């Protein structure tokens, strides 16, 4: 979580820097047309917005590529994300992402950052600590300076004379200020200052200042107090502390303080004629000559303009107040620019972090359902309708998929949804006995309302599971059973099927004893041996009956099952355990494929599993990864054709083995569901390799047409190949 927030902060910092520079230029151009107060409001809004690293989505645009590139690269370089643990299943082997897409990461600007989901559970990285150190250092230095300054003032300060107090009272009356403000004179300061967030004090240098000048000085400081400028300064301090690494923010703080001085000058001079302006100018000059006050933190100094004295004097003497309507128009323009830049950050967040969000405890389901998605041409029928008599057509994701624009695609195309992460042990029971079903519960509730079958994933797995579960051999069985019990009891009523055991088999499976082919050095196996599979299925069976859902299908799920050896190992496990009465109802073939896939291998595996009576198969996490070599690493026309042809050929095979009544060969009714692992290339786990049916703009890809009508697609391909 810490890393995600930090990544977001960097993103906000970078994009808001552009906003700061823009506002700087605009303020300068529109200086004579806008009041300093209006400009200051814009700066304050900007500073405040930089403290909130989360943005509402104001509108959807594609983020400027350069921005995505920079922020993505930054996040990657700073290691604010973790790599997914697999890339793709190639003849039963996993290839690590970093190897497979070496060199592509930095330039793949808008590609998914699905991997960031893992970061929520990892420990804050070294950059988080560096950031925290900087943040605390800035705040601490300010606080120390502030208190040292206060101490000096208290020590050397004397109450001001009655004459000054009387002048102060008349100034307060004039500007309608009631609050008591202490007045001190101190030999250790050179320019008048206002200090104190809650108990304001004006401190004057200990020397005789002409009463006409003093009147201006007091009025200026009273306006500072009235307008809450010390609070503004505090705000700018926090913004600076949060973005201490960003030099542009120092510029912002400086400009903000200058505008606050100008705004006070404007307030003092609102009804002043030329004479008063000259006198005020003289006062400013007189104070400026006395030298700059040593910088302390939370106070406002009469000489706060620093080196900009000339500009200040010109403003004081020459500037008439802008016409009201001009000021309104210009301020609106400034505000619009600001809104645009804040919006840009949200766009950036959307495009750069196009991942399935981690199911946050309280993340609301934004549930805007529109009937006709704009981005999907009308002539396309939803895949779910095309395949309704064959099998369920599914996709996966977490809460984010339930809001537009994902929801438009999801609800039109799919009638089944696998909860991608929210039901994994790491999220459901990160600490022993502390269950969190919020995210999974929200997802299942919304999907049930829309008649979308929900698939639970996953109970016993060696990944994304907290280590405490298997750190004590004696407690392991009890813990596994308790976890399964709680999850099925809570989520089971809404589910169609659930992956009870995931990825128990090793990649190299040559031994005739299936137990020896299991992953030996991981999680449940190390504490319970091969028995953990049986324990898990038996417990799941017991609970599903208990909650009145004996029809809830219990699945064994794994990747690489088109590899003959691994498929056979799973086959032997399932047949042996079922013979012993262990209720395994289905085999999930994950099907993370790449272009090297042999479709015949897939068909052979299906034929093999089809010989186990009473067992169904689901293609549970399908994708076909191809690293693009087109612009932005998208697929070239040739690559797209290769991917689409593979999809088409696979779907013709799936149709042959469909469980639904559309399959006229009853002996081959096997496949209950085909799930594509991700709604769009932008949101998919392996999104960098363009693996699914919709592109990052939510448009159907060529692969979509291939799936929608595989036979026609192949026919067309063959015809055009011969040309
Ligand atoms: C993946 C998710 O898609 C990612 O969001 C997450 O970061 C890592 O896990 N096999 C499985 C799935 O059974 O749970 C994995 O999902 C992909 C591989």
How would you explain this protein's 3D organization?
With 723 residues, the chain is an alpha/beta fold. 49% of the residues lie in helices and 11% in strands. The chain is built from 25 helices and 16 strands. The strands form 3 sheets. Strands 8-9-10-11-12-13-15-16 form an 8-stranded parallel barrel, surrounded by 4 helices. Helix 23 crosses helix 25. The longest helix has 31 residues. It is elongated and about 105 Å long. About 13% of the residues have low confidence. Bound molecules: (3S,4R)-3-hydroxy-2-oxopiperidin-4-yl beta-D-xylopyranoside. (3S,4R)-3-hydroxy-2-oxopiperidin-4-yl beta-D-xylopyranoside binds next to helix 5.
Keywords:
723 residues; alpha/beta; 8-stranded parallel beta barrel; 5-stranded mixed β-sheet; elongated; binds (3S,4R)-3-hydroxy-2-oxopiperidin-4-yl beta-D-xylopyranoside
Residue ranges: pLDDT <50 for 5 or more in a row?
A: 57-68, 75-122, 345-380
Number of strands: 16
Structural class: alpha/beta
Q: Give average pLDDT, whole number.
A: 81
**Residue share in β-strands:** 5-15%
Q: Write out the distinct hetero groups bound to the structure.
A: (3S,4R)-3-hydroxy-2-oxopiperidin-4-yl beta-D-xylopyranoside
Q: How would you summarize the topology of this molecule?
A:
Layout: H1 2-29, H2 36-49, H3 65-77, E1 88-90, E2 93-95, H4 97-100, H5 116-119, H6 126-156, E3 158-159, H7 162-175, E4 182-186, E5 193-195, E6 201-205, H8 211-226, H9 229-242, H10 247-268, H11 274-289, E7 299-301, H12 309-318, H13 324-352, H14 383-386, E8 392-397, H15 406-413, E9 416-419, H16 425-428, H17 438-449, E10 453-460, H18 473-491, E11 495-502, H19 523-528, H20 531-546, E12 553-558, H21 564-579, E13 586-589, E14 592-594, H22 599-609, E15 616-625, H23 637-656, E16 671-676, H24 702-708, H25 710-722
Parallel strand pairs: 4-6, 8-9, 8-16, 9-10, 10-11, 11-12, 12-13, 13-15, 14-15, 15-16
Antiparallel strand pairs: 1-2, 3-4, 5-6, 5-7
Bound molecules: (3S,4R)-3-hydroxy-2-oxopiperidin-4-yl beta-D-xylopyranoside.
